[in-house]
Amino acid sequence: MRANCSSSSACPANSSEEELPVGLEAHGNLELVFTVVSAVMMGLLMFSLGCSVEIRNLWLHIRRPWGIAVGLLCQFGLMPLLAYLLVISFSLKPVQAIAVLIMGCCPGGTISNIFTFWVDGDMDLSISMTACSTVAALGMMPLCLYLYTSSWNLEQNLTIPYQNIGITLVCLTIPVAFGVCVNYRWPKQSKVILKIGAILGGVLIVVVAVAGVVLAKGTSNSDITLLTISFIFPLIGHVTGFLLALLTHQSWQRCRTISLETGAQNIQMCVTMLQLSFTAKDLVQMLSFPLAYGLFQLLDGFLIVAAYKMYKTRLKSKDRRKSPGRAQVCHKKSTSPKETSAFLEVNEEAAVTPGPSGPVELHTALGPTGCLSSCA
């Protein structure tokens, strides 16, 4: 699946004769600055999120990788299939179709880790899935692209950005490893770092959104069909990922995590692959899709977070209305807001836990609260 780089037209990165369109050339420096800044911020963010990972829980996911296996099935089974079905349903042009399919075959993006943290998801599973999908992309991306494009007549071969995949993996694992070590040795300090990371994640999302809007103006040849697909594709990915996790009897916490991991794709990897494989003339029609996908991916993530926060607030108020006397006793025995929050999260997570992992998580969740048994 490598492009034949002996021809300058097949590899636009090596071509000196072909000039970039005005839009792409004008935003080249901005894209470089954005890449460097986002890489530094992402490294700091993954370090802070790593402070929420416990070695024991991470080892359990590795020993019993059922959740990771379901996530990989969603990532490299569902998403490429959904991309192919969208291409067929909307009858896209070949150039546009390959952009949609490449996006579907990309591994999960680190932006999903931020949203998973905001919806109280399983951070150990989220980070494990992101790392495993990035490693699996070394073989699964060429395989998926070969299977779905074998009947297509492509003028250029597709170049898999192995270097980009390796850099992504390094930028993910090293900061997370440092964060895990900090959480193990200094658990109190790691909670402060985690709060700072949550703020940094919000800033990073704003930077990504603004840069995406500015860069999208440089590729103004996007049509309504591609915009429609870029809107519904991540949304369908989130919904189908959640349903598959539910059918495989994962806990509600894992269902939220797998759902966010499924719909969130590595946008930078898709853009890199398009730039390595196609001419500048084709890029004008193709780059608008990953940029629009990234923006709608952020929008969908915010909608999911908002829906979860509303659900959690409603659950708290409902619990208070049901047992005001019991809540009063609990308040007297433990006035810590963290313990109250943990008690309410137990109700949400343990109320309906369809999978085999439920009893383990229930036992873990009940341990630190101490208020549940006293109020039973």
Task: Please describe what this structure looks like.
The chain has helices spanning 22-26, 28-50, 55-63, 66-90, 94-105, 111-118, 123-149, 162-185, 187-217, 224-247, 252-263, 267-277, 280-286, 288-322, 324-333, 337-351, 358-366, 371-374. It has 376 residues and is mainly alpha-helical. Helix 7 (123-149) runs antiparallel to helix 8 (162-185) and helix 12 (267-277) packs antiparallel against helix 14. The termini are far apart.
General shape? globular
Major sheet attributes: none
Give the mean pLDDT. Answer: 74
> How many separate helices?
18
Measured on Cα atoms, how large is the radius of gyration?
22 Å
Helix content: over 70%
Taking the alpha carbons of the first and last residues, their distance comes to: 61 Å
- Reading the helices and strands in chain order gives HHHHHHHHHHHHHHHHHH
Query: Which structural class fits the helix and strand makeup?
Result: mainly alpha
Q: List the uncertain runs.
A: 2-27, 330-376
Topology, element by element:
Layout: H1 22-26, H2 28-50, H3 55-63, H4 66-90, H5 94-105, H6 111-118, H7 123-149, H8 162-185, H9 187-217, H10 224-247, H11 252-263, H12 267-277, H13 280-286, H14 288-322, H15 324-333, H16 337-351, H17 358-366, H18 371-374
Helix pairs in contact: 2-8, 2-9, 4-5, 4-7, 4-10, 4-11, 5-7, 6-7, 6-9, 6-11, 6-14, 7-8, 7-11, 8-9, 9-14, 10-11, 10-14, 12-14, 16-17
